[in-house]
Hints:
Elements: H1 2-12, E1 22-29, E2 40-43, E3 46-49, E4 55-59, E5 64-71, E6 78-84, E7 88-89, E8 92-94, H2 102-106, E9 118-123, H3 124-130, H4 136-139, E10 146-150, E11 159-163, E12 171-175, E13 178-179, E14 200-208, E15 220-227, E16 235-243, E17 247-255, E18 263-274, E19 283-295, E20 299-313, E21 319-320, E22 339-354, E23 359-382, E24 391-393, E25 396-398, E26 400-422, E27 429-451, E28 461-482, E29 487-504, E30 514-532, E31 535-546, H5 550-554, E32 565-578, E33 582-583, E34 586-611, E35 617-638, E36 642-665, E37 671-683, E38 690-701, E39 704-713, E40 716-717, E41 727-728, E42 731-742, E43 749-757, E44 765-775, E45 778-789, E46 794-802
Parallel strand pairs: 1-7, 1-8, 12-15, 36-44
Antiparallel strand pairs: 1-4, 2-3, 2-5, 5-6, 9-14, 10-11, 12-13, 14-15, 16-17, 16-46, 17-18, 18-19, 19-20, 20-22, 21-45, 22-23, 23-26, 24-25, 26-27, 27-28, 28-29, 29-30, 30-31, 31-32, 32-34, 33-34, 34-35, 35-36, 36-37, 36-38, 38-39, 39-42, 40-41, 42-43, 43-46, 44-45
Family: Belongs to the TonB-dependent receptor family.
Protein name: TonB-dependent receptor
GO molecular function: siderophore uptake transmembrane transporter activity
Amino acid sequence: MKKITFFWFIFLCPVLVFAQYAVTGKITDAQTQQPLIGATVQLGQFGTTSDAQGFYRLTNIPGGSQTLVISYIGYSVDKRTLTVEQDITLDINLRPTSYRTEEVIVSATRANEKTGTTYTNVSKAQIQEQNFGQDLPYLLEQTPSVVVNSDAGAGVGYTGIRIRGSDITRINVTVNGIPVNDAESHGTFFVNMPDLASSVQDIQVQRGVGTSTNGAAAFGASLNIRTLGFNQEAYAEAINSIGSFDTRRHSVSFGTGLIKDKFTFDGRLSKISSDGYIDRAFSDLKSYYFSAGYLGKTGMLRFVSFSGKEKTYQAWNGVPEDKLETDRTYNSLTYDNETDNYQQDHYQLHFSKNLAKYFDLGGAFHLTRGRGYYEQYKNNQKLANYNLPAVVLGDTTISRTDLIRQKWLDNYFYGVTYALNYNPQNDRFTATLGGAWNKYDGDHFGEVIWARFASNSEIRQRYYEGTALKTDFNIYGKVNYQLTDKLGLFGDLQYRTINYELDGTDDNQRDVTQQANFNFFNPKGGITYALSPNQTLYASYAVGNREPVRSDFVDRKGAGSPQAETMYNLEAGYRLRGNNPQITGRRIGYSLDANYYYMDYKNQLVLTGQLNDVGSPLRTNIKESYRTGVELAGLLNLYNRVEISSSVSLSRNKIQNYTETVYIYDADYNPEGTVENNYTETDISFSPNFVSTHKLEVQPLKGLKAALLYKTVSKQYLDNTASETRKINGYQVADLRLRYVVKPSFMRELEVGLLLNNLFNAKYEANGYTFSEQYSGDATRYDYNYYFPQATRNYLLTLGLRF
Length: 803
């Protein structure tokens, strides 16, 4: 605390003696008074965008007469001349034009002030401030109830995110309304989309079931990502970063702006590499982004494509508990090409069209193409497990060999989404009818590419192969009805049907052929009440259903098929948005969010603490379990020089009755029995009861922003037994972020940034796994805990050139 107090003192002192002209205000829709997020604000050579509450802030403005231009797609441009002689507060109301474009694209996946759900908007400016080349989950670390981790320890490569204790397989991710979760595992692998954040307009984080979406039913949270919108002006930029562990990022971007008020093109190329904190845990990531759009008076057509190609050395084994004190960067893998190699290409064609005075239609066709493998050196493997006969050399029979294998995934995911919107000018009643049809077609196969004793194998001996087909269809209708100026209602009904077919064998030579069908009805309803123009009460109740993932079918131990999960989600809260009163002509901005939630699960699939042979967690259905908690988030902006924000999440995450199974093995490591342990009101694994974030940001000098970030996460259990011997200790981590921006006459902006991660050099682990065993004739239980240590103090330095 003494260290933190010292930094706060150093940051705040210059604020007391430094003053510059500032132009601030709020940008809203002239009809609905709703804030417009990401509106472009340009005053001479100074520019910014509006934040999640519609506020904008331009500082260090020289005196004199200058032209202010406010623009937002779907709205008329506001252009006026300002005489800057003192700080100016100017609120802007933009009027909608005859077409609606970006709103149509995201209407199916976005929540707003009228939907009664819990969400946080992260603006382009906020993303840019936090983007030093780490994976996208790290850019969301300061949002409520979020915990992130990195296999390699430094935020580049394979990273994970949990929201309210729900991992990425329960977090529905869409990009421009298109689902990107893997249809079989439900996971989203951000390593396959490196540097996507550099091409993102904004992100909405929904907690709980959320609104109807075009992907797998949200079952804990949703991440709705919107890529770059139509830019009015041409631009070009180059970003270069270097940092600890030989981390490097190089990115170039361009945009043509609107050509003849109709056409626009944007593009980006990126390369990110890092050696990682963990031994040999390197990453080599390449990506591109390209979009081309046509904007008409009553419609829009837009093509978006982005791709990522990754090569990462495997670090998923973690560090054994007994090595944490002596060798925190330990990696058990030593084969020089023990790597994961994957490429994922995304293609999206979006369209929207005004059909009548109050109706518009939006939709998209999409294709995701993925293919790749991970390579492993395996010693003393049974030839029979690879469909190979034993090798006979004279009197010697060789039944085992060392070998190198590759496990492949080759898939296509394609489909269509649509949304018909009714938007009258009075905005008292709005409605959407939408849905999606998606198809997944994937091949799983394995090949032996080298063996010490090759038997009668062929080149690239294929030892297993299987196929998977999954069809997912959903249709939904949602309405917002404003009963009075203060009271509003929200309703959302979704029907979803899934057909899943597996055929062939898996890597253990098991026949996995099976077929499953699911039919889900997901109703949602909410209410909002405006206490005042800047205060809102809300509540919602939603039902979410979710099918099991592939591993639940093929890796499940014991008889019976996995069951679908159901969640009943109650959300209730209070929102405060304000920027008044004014003090000595300067704006004070503030916001406060307080939310209570209760997530009641039926047949929740929870981690058992055990893993299959490739490190994936095994799960089992639990009849009764729940999550409940309170989330608080607040922000205070003083004099446009100091910004303080905090969030606190307090939760209780319980399984009411849980039976743990521990296997007993004989001397040859063959299972010969089990021991069952029963628990009541035990904690759900990987669910901290306390998470907090804090940020203090100041502008001590012209163009310089300094931010101290502080994160606290309480202990988490590695399994569902709440055992103190199988847990992740709580941790506190502080980061320091510095950004210095100058605006020379020959370019739009030159920026230098420094991010000091883990400022106080804490030694902590953010993820892990465990498994337990017993042996014949020995009543002792043996626990094997593995952890993923995060990097000690490290830095990232970036240089941005924007034209």
